[in-house]
Specification:
93 residues; Aminopeptidase; 3-stranded mixed β-sheet; 2 helices; 3 strands; 24% helix
C-alpha cells in the first residue's frame, strides 16, 4: 500500500449555490513540487463542475509560504479579498 502524500477536503456546507468550496488542501512537504497539489485541486474543480457549480472558492492565509498561492494562481484562481486578523497581546482576565 502506498504512502498518503496529501489530502483534499471539499465542504459542500460552505459552498455557495453556484460555487464549490475547498475547506482544506495539503501535500506533505517531501512531495511539494511533484504536481500532487495541482492534481488534488483539479479533482475539486472537476468534481464541482460535474455538480453544475460555476466556480471554486477557498481561503488561504495571505502570508502562506508553502507555495499554495502560486498553485491557486497557476490553475487560474484569482484573489478576491484579504482578511485582517487582530489580537490584543495585553488582554488578560
Amino acid at each position: 500500500m502506498g504512502e498518503d502524500v496529501g489530502f483534499l477536503d471539499c465542504d459542500d456546507e460552505l459552498a455557495h449555490e453556484d460555487a464549490g468550496f475547498v475547506a482544506g488542501l495539503g501535500v506533505r512537504l517531501a512531495h511539494h513540487g511533484k504536481g500532487y497539489g495541482e492534481a488534488l485541486l483539479q479533482f475539486a474543480i472537476d468534481f464541482y463542475s460535474e455538480l453544475g457549480r460555476k466556480k471554486l472558492c477557498l481561503s488561504v492565509d495571505a502570508g502562506n509560504e508553502s507555495g499554495a498561492l502560486r498553485l491557486y494562481e497557476k490553475v487560474g484562481m484569482k484573489s478576491i479579498s484579504e482578511w485582517h486578523h487582530y489580537e490584543n497581546p495585553n488582554w488578560s482576565r
